[in-house]
Each structure stands twice: as C-alpha cells, then as structure tokens.
C-alpha cells in the first residue's frame, strides 16, 4: 500500500525523533513523507534580520507573504536545514531516506500567483503582488515511483518550480495532496497537533468527502483548509485521508488503526 | 470622503480617506467589485480581476 504522510511544523518540532523513528520502521514499504515547517522559517527569518510578513486572506487563512528575501530564507530552511535533519534522523534509525524539494527533478510544478487578495490594515480587502508563492499544477509521479521501487523513502520539502524556472513557496498540505493523487496513493495522512477534526467537542471519526466539504465551511481557520483539501483529495482518487495527531511515542501507529478522522467514501 | 466613478455603471462610489491602492470596494448600486488604483497621478476605480487566495506554506 502506498501512503503519503504529511507532518506540519508544530508536530515535527515537538516530536521529530518519534516521527523519524516510526518512518524509518516503515521505510521501503511505499511511504512518502512531506514536511511543513513554517514556524522554523519564521524563526530563521528573525535570526537573519528578515521580518516575516504574515497576511490574512478574506476567509481568515493566515499565510506567509514570500518576497525575494523571505524566499531565500524559505529555501535555506525548508530544503536545507529542516529537510536534511529529517533525512538524517530517519537514516539514524535505519531507514533509507532521500531528501528532495519540489524543485528537484521538476517534482512539483506550480503557477506563480501574480496577485493575491489580503485583508489590509484597515480591515478592507486589498489586492497586492503575489510574491513567490504558487499553486501546484502538476507532479512528477514517475520520479517518486522510481524512488519507491528502489526502496527509498522520499522526504519532500514544499517548494515548486514555476513556469520561468523560479523557485516558489507552496503549501505543504497541498503538496502532499497533489503527490498522493499523482502516485495514486491509497492513503494520505495529515499529522497535526490535535487528535482529529473536532465536531461538538469530539473527534469526528468518519466523514464522506461531501460531509467534509460541508464541515470545512463551519470550522475554524487552519483545520478548515485541511478538511476541504482532504475532501478534494478523496474526490481526486485517493481512497482515504486520515487527519490525526503527530504527537506521542508512536504517532504512525494510528495509521494501522485509522485512529483520528477518516475522510473517504 | 472622496467620490469616484464606477467604470461599470458610471455611478458614484464613496471611498474612505485612508484607502490604499489595491483596496477592493463593492459598488452597492451595480454590485461590481472594484479596485482602487493610481493612474497618471489620479485615483480611479477599475473592475477588479479574479484573484484566488494565497496558498503558501
């Protein structure tokens, strides 16, 4: 079974060793790992004197605004430090990992956003230049499949190649979703810092794609984006998406028991 | 509060004094989504293009 696992920066920062140890155990079994790490980029931006600009979309999604300086830090941190730390940790635990970014081998092709809409300082909507962020349009599935067939565990940083060969910052969850659809994975796992999608104070265990799509309109920022993307992923041909916690000693053990919120038909 | 012309229905649109270039205003009379821009030193409204949301990491 081919599985794509995505861990956000918070789960990774607090539980990198356990996630890497679990990944190493599953290495060679058709696992692809996609990482986030926005908080680490912010930390290094500050260390390098580049003030991060966080913008808010009209629907309340907060994201990094990537100008030229910010992109330099993003590439250094995501494709460099963070990616290599994950790869080295997996190898330390006996796994066979290869670190890549979406730029390598044209793994992820994205369309650069020329303009974006943000909520400006007066609380009104404003159009600003899009910076170096992109929307993914294609994935080089054959490269990933070749690595999997050779027994490697690809560890992928969320960068992509633009139409003019420029490097772009892309959303890690979107990258994982595109990769899962591209390689026809059976399962996409989002490791987060909560146990699943909370509805009325409890974890919703099972949702259909259409239920998830409806629910995404009613839940808080951050998780709404993940749930909507999970729905799109299932409609795109991936059998199931599991949203679960990346915390604890054996976070990937939740895959076999499908503990958390499962979105699927 | 300055008033600018709507390029769609040619009606009047009130713009706040502190409005910045790129800000979007919906013209209540005709429903057009308009973008404030500076063109040849003058502030004008133009029909806003469709723009998606930012999806960076």
Oligomeric assembly = heterodimer
CATH architecture of chain A: 3-Layer(aba) Sandwich
Report the average pLDDT across residues of chain A: 93
The shape of chain A, in one word, is: globular
| Structural class estimated from helices and strands of chain B | mainly beta
What spatial order of strands do you see in the largest sheet of chain B? Answer: 3-4-5
Give the strand order of the largest sheet of chain A, numbering strands 1, 2, ... along the chain.
5-10-2-1-13-17-18-16
Write the layout of secondary structure elements.
The complex is a heterodimer of chains A (265) and B (57).
Chain A: E1 3-7, H1 9-26, E2 31-35, H2 38-47, E3 53-56, E4 62-65, H3 68-92, E5 97-101, E6 108-112, E7 115-119, E8 125-129, E9 134-139, H4 141-149, E10 153-157, E11 159-161, E12 167-169, H5 172-182, E13 187-192, E14 198-199, E15 202-203, E16 206-207, H6 209-215, H7 223-235, E17 240-245, H8 253-257, E18 261-264
Parallel strand pairs in A: 1-2, 1-13, 2-10, 5-10, 13-17, 16-18
Antiparallel strand pairs in A: 3-4, 6-9, 7-8, 11-12, 14-15, 17-18
Helix pairs in contact in A: 1-3, 2-3, 5-7, 6-7
Chain B: E1 3-5, E2 12-14, E3 24-26, E4 33-39, E5 42-47
Antiparallel strand pairs in B: 1-2, 3-4, 4-5
Quick description:
The complex is a heterodimer of chains A (265) and B (57). Chain A is α/β, with parallel strands linked by helices and 265 residues long.
Explained architecture:
Chain A has one domain: Acetylglutamate kinase-like (Carbamate kinase, 3-Layer(aba) Sandwich), CATH 3.40.1160.10. Chain A is built from 8 helices and 18 strands. Chain A has helices at residues 9-26, 38-47, 68-92, 141-149, 172-182, 209-215, 223-235, 253-257; strands at 3-7, 31-35, 53-56, 62-65, 97-101, 108-112, 115-119, 125-129, 134-139, 153-157, 159-161, 167-169, 187-192, 198-199, 202-203, 206-207, 240-245, 261-264. In chain A, the strands form 6 sheets. An 8-stranded mixed β-sheet of chain A has the order 5-10-2-1-13-17-18-16, with helices on both faces. Chain A has a two-stranded antiparallel sheet with strand order 3-4. A two-stranded antiparallel sheet of chain A has the order 6-9. In chain A, a hairpin with a 5-residue loop joins strand 11 and strand 12 (167-169). The mean pLDDT of chain A is 93. Chain B has no helices and 5 strands. Helix content of chain B is 0%, strand content 39%. In chain B, the strands form 2 sheets. A 3-stranded antiparallel β-sheet of chain B has the order 3-4-5, with no helix packed on it. In chain B, strands 1-2 form a two-stranded antiparallel ribbon. Chain B is mainly beta and 57 residues long. Chains A and B meet through strand 4, strand 7 and strand 8 of A and loops of B.
